[in-house]
Write a structure and sequence with these properties.
Elements lengths: L1 E3 L10 H4 L3 E2 L9 H11 L2 H5 L10 E5 L2 H16 L6 E4 H7 L9 E5 L3 E2 L2 H14 L3 E3 L4 E11 L2 E11 L2 E4 L3 E3 L5 H5 L8 E11 L10 E4 L5 E4 L5 E4 L3 E4 L6 E2 L2 H14 L8 E12 L5 E5 L2 E8 L5 H16 L20 H9 L9
Parallel strand pairs: 1-7, 3-13, 9-20, 11-20
Antiparallel strand pairs: 2-6, 3-5, 4-5, 8-9, 9-10, 12-15, 12-16, 12-18, 14-15, 16-17, 19-20
Helix pairs in contact: 2-9
Length: about 375
């Protein structure tokens, strides 16, 4: 197996470098549910499997309500979570929420708690996967630009198909029996070299790191129904704040610029939910470039009429948590094994999209401060 990386493994501004590191099932789209269940189980033993410290912690995920109306919404939300197989997700009252996270603001009245969820370090994890792959014989070409996919026409039993037969790189043409396109937000431009239009656009998602707190005051990852927020505490004691607030990709999509309104808005909402955060200051902030699909779930699998190519693109912020299960499914699919986990994520759904809707989605500017 050959892996071709344009730069390095988990480096700026790739999503694998910038990810918030959340490992959760709670709130996943039903089409991702089977992958999420498998991935959460796999995360429990992933450090042993990869022979690396991933800073993994199974501290749970707590989604909070700050009004009776939001609490009623959470009750319905918990029911839906259990229906898709997340059977340990449960509704907690204010006292239980405070037992899980002391110091929440006075408006918190309830929460949805998913105890099996957690967090890990995205850079350590991505590089650990790469190291493990190389131990098992994979070759990595880092710092190598891929300019396009290679395709040829085939005729099988009188039916004309196209087959992807490799890639063109700056180190030469690479022939391959199978190509997996998993280039993050840059996947769309590679697909376009063979006339394949992927409904994926680039968004620069922001993260903020605080100065460290001396004590561990936050174990679960927390968010809230009425807030654009993901808040966790790292092993260092620092708070990591995100949730979908935006910066701006540069025109060449090799970097980004921060939006001060997003930085301040994200920080303020974290401080309001958990006031102890406000006792710290912002240490630094950054963005990662994420590929957002038109329906906010990934495109994973093959495209009818185009042999030799598997897509794993458009993860829309969900890729890190699902990665262990996605890797297994993609390998099984290439080897001809059933993969019902991918049924709702098949790229074949692109055929039902109206071209005007795709064009509108691709051209839409990121006007607000957070992802909608």
């Amino acid at each position: 197996m050959l892996v071709v990386e344009r730069s390095g493994v988990a480096v700026s501004p790739a999503a694998s470098w910038a990810s918030a590191g959340g490992v959760r099932r709670q709130g996943r789209h039903p089409a991702e549910a089977m992958l999420a269940i498998e991935a959460i189980e796999r995360w429990r033993t992933l450090e042993q499997e990869l022979e690396a410290d991933l800073h993994y912690r199974q501290g749970g995920n707590l989604l909070l309500a700050e009004s009776d109306t939001e609490a009623n919404q959470l009750s319905e939300f918990v029911h839906r979570q259990q229906e898709v197989g997340f059977v340990d997700v449960r509704l907690v009252d204010r006292n239980e929420a405070l037992a899980l996270v002391p110091g929440l603001n006075e408006r918190v009245v309830a929460g949805s708690y998913s105890p099996s969820d957690g967090q890990a370090d995205p850079v350590l994890t991505t590089r650990a996967f790469a190291s493990a792959a190389q131990r098992f014989g994979a070759t990595y070409w880092t710092g190598t630009h891929t300019s396009g996919l290679l395709v040829r026409n085939e005729r099988v039993v009188g039916v004309r198909n196209e087959r992807v037969v490799g890639v063109q790189t700056e180190r030469g043409e690479i022939q391959a029996e199978h190509v997996i396109l998993v280039a993050g937000t840059w996947s769309a431009e590679l697909a376009a070299t063979i006339g394949l239009r992927l409904p994926i656009r680039t968004r620069a998602l922001q993260m903020i790191l605080s100065t460290p707190v001396q004590s561990n005051v936050l174990r679960p990852v927390i968010s809230a129904v009425g807030r654009v927020l993901s808040l966790k505490q790292l092993a260092s004691g620092a708070f990591l704040v995100g949730g979908g607030w935006l910066g701006d990709p540069t025109p060449d999509r090799y970097s980004y610029t921060m939006r001060q309104s997003s930085v301040q808005g994200n920080w303020t909402t974290a401080c309001e939910l958990l006031p102890v955060v406000g006792e710290q200051r912002i240490d630094h902030s950054w963005c990662g470039l994420e590929g957002q699909s038109i329906d906010n779930i990934p495109l994973i699998g093959v495209i009818p009429g185009l042999e030799g190519l598997t897509l794993a693109v458009g993860f829309s912020g969900h890729g890190f948590a699902l990665a262990p299960a996605v890797g297994r499914c993609v390998a099984d699919q290439i080897n001809g094994h059933p993969t019902p986990e991918l049924d709702g994520l098949s790229p074949s759904r692109m055929a039902s999209l109206h071209p005007h809707a795709v064009e509108t989605f691709m051209a839409e500017a990121a006007r607000g401060d957070f992802l909608v």
